[in-house]
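User: Hey, quick favor. My workstation is busy. Could you predict this chain's structure for me?
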Amino acid sequence: MAMYTAEAFVCAVGFIGFTKYKQFILPLQILEWYTIGSLIDYCIIDVMIYKKIHTYLVGPIFSVFELLLFSCIFYAWRTSKRNGFLIWAGFAAYLLIWIIGKFTFEAITGWDNYSEPISQLIQIGFGGWILLKISKETNIVLREDIRFWVLSGIVLYAVATFFFFGLFTPMLMSNRKLLLLIWSFNDLFIVIQYIFFLRAFLCKPVNAGIIHQSQPIHKE
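Assistant: No problem, here it is.
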């Protein structure tokens, strides 16, 4: 039930984003693509569950898509040329580990118990760093700043689920009931994340600094 509630909420946020898409700056447009991708991911998983097909492969593929789009958002709001380089270097390192893992220590039919936490560390690291830089700006109001809401949603979810995804397979093998219980909390965290995304979608373009937020925070 919690899963379908989360899906319905993501769908509602996606619809609102779709209606305002032409007004969005690039990072918000990327976030809308991510939301649509999440909905497609949900649909595929629902069909696979209905047909009693294992869904383990869907999550790892979506994780690559997720970090790619989040890296695009981080790059749009990079704090310097060096920061921009590190963002893509981080994604490249993650992708390399992901590919190697699928042929060695992480089965293609299993969860990313090693590369998924790396993805979340990248999200926490770069998202947190840019948030820190934003907090030092004196000419903004955080509650109306698009960057604050988007990055906070990304970082909070990554922090909340870091250990859960890293321990997914061990929990599945040892205590399935515990896994199902904890998974309901994951759905809650998804709703919280999309509340932040929704707030970003609803920020007024003028108050949100729509022009400068599509550029790096500092001149390169």
